[in-house]
Fold this protein.
Amino acid sequence: MIEARTFIKDRAERIFSDWSSTAVLEGIGGVYAVLLPVNWFEQPLTLPLHGPHRYRGQPIKYQFTLPILEDGYGVVYVGRTGNLRQRWRGHLSKGDRNDGGQVKFGLLDCALHTDALTALRALREHGRFIYTTLPGPENCANRDVLEMGLCARFGPPFNIKSER
């Protein structure tokens, strides 16, 4: 079953989060996709791919557009996790690049936004998270295979990485 929930609101300068509707997902594993409006990606955008940690050369430039799914939205990121609630908080909260903010930093890297706070606000206002639960360690491999399949099907740009 695929579910959708609303759990964030922005009020002027203050970001307000009500995570109570996600309490049932604490510690529950699953696979999810983040969707954003396709019209943001109508013109081809360039995403600099960061190389391996020791790589010192120029980033690889990846040019992309976003295919439309439904209602003017498209998949920008697919993820898997053993704790959906915690993972989404990483995406939808202030934090560093390695705190689970692939989407907000993807919006920065492809120059749709100029700072992390406006990227976060745009994600919180317009982003859609769709998910399915696959709880427990016995589903670890299933989560991995489903994530790979969704990446192969939709080619989400913020999942693209250079070789490690």
The first helix runs from residue 84 to 92. The radius of gyration is 16 Å. The mean pLDDT is 85.
